[in-house]
Design a protein that fits this description.
Blueprint lengths: L4 E7 L6 H11 L5 E7 L6 H9 L5 E5 L6 H11 L4 E4 L11 H5 L9 E8 L6 H18 L11 E4 H6 L10 H7 L3 E7 L13 H21 L5 E5 L2 E6 L3
Parallel strand pairs: 1-2, 1-4, 2-3, 5-7
Antiparallel strand pairs: 4-6, 5-6, 8-9
Length: 250
């Protein structure tokens, strides 16, 4: 059976976190046709062994392995390309995005709104170090001032979007942090929903504040350039009975 939903998780060195997270996803979506795709971004711990053991228990689990570490955006891209579901859900593999948030991400798509391009999670009661929360808040304010995407927490890993929308976006490293702006660039609507956040149980974050800031500035300027270069005309096909609108201008 072809799944309706593909849950994509980028993972690197998440031994200890991945088993409980994947069983939680399977339980949350037990009444929906779904698949779970974990993209192992060249883990050096026991992540891959845990995934191999889980495949014997979760028939819907697929594991894609990178030969070298290429980062979170590259892992998401590999997962979306491999996905068979029309709707994609992403979340981080560190266990800080509780899977019981997934139904709230999917609910806005139930009405069949073709103009809805992304449902973005917005973390409440964030369970990170104070320094990280402050750095993230500052980065979000700067991003919003420049890109005007109207999203308070674009770095949250909990997202849901049509697969074809993602494949239409230009790819660049760290695009996962700029998905709301890039989806809006296509003339589609972005909706936010509040989601819960959990403390990390095992391992440590792959990003430091200084590293995140350094790459973020370059990515922010590049994203702003891409948005300003986009021009979407209103198109119509001339038919015998008159003209039919195909796409609205953004």
């Amino acid at each position: 059976m072809t799944p309706d939903i593909s849950v994509v998780l980028p993972a690197r060195d998440e031994a200890g976190n991945i088993t409980s997270l994947l069983t939680g996803i399977a339980a949350t979506l037990q009444d929906r046709a779904h698949e779970i795709i974990v993209v192992d971004d060249a883990s050096r711990d026991g992540t891959r062994a845990e995934l191999a053991a889980l495949q014997t228990r979760l028939p819907q689990l697929r594991v894609i392995c990178h030969d070298r570490s290429c980062g979170q955006s590259a892992a998401i891209r590999s997962g979306v390309w491999a996905a068979r579901g029309a709707l994609i859900v992403t979340l981080d593999a560190d266990g800080q995005n509780p899977p019981d948030n997934i139904p709230a991400l999917l609910a806005p798509f139930a009405g069949g709104d073709t103009a809805l391009g992304l449902v973005q999670g917005q973390r409440v009661d964030r369970r990170d170090r104070p320094s990280r929360r402050l750095a993230s808040a500052a980065a979000n304010r700067i991003r919003n001032a420049l890109l005007r995407d109207g999203v308070r927490d674009s770095g949250c890993g909990l997202k849901a979007f049509p697969r074809m929308v993602y494949l239409a976006l230009p790819y660049f490293d760290h695009i996962h942090r700029f998905m709301p702006a890039m989806v809006a660039r296509e003339g589609l609507r972005v909706q936010t929903v509040p989601v819960t956040h959990a403390p990390r149980a095992f391992g440590r974050s792959k990003y430091g504040n200084l590293r995140r800031a350094a790459v973020g500035i370059v990515d922010l300027l590049g994203t702003a350039w891409l948005i300003r270069r986009r021009r979407l005309p209103r198109t119509r096909e001339l038919a015998r009975s008159g003209a039919t609108d195909l796409r609205g201008a953004a």
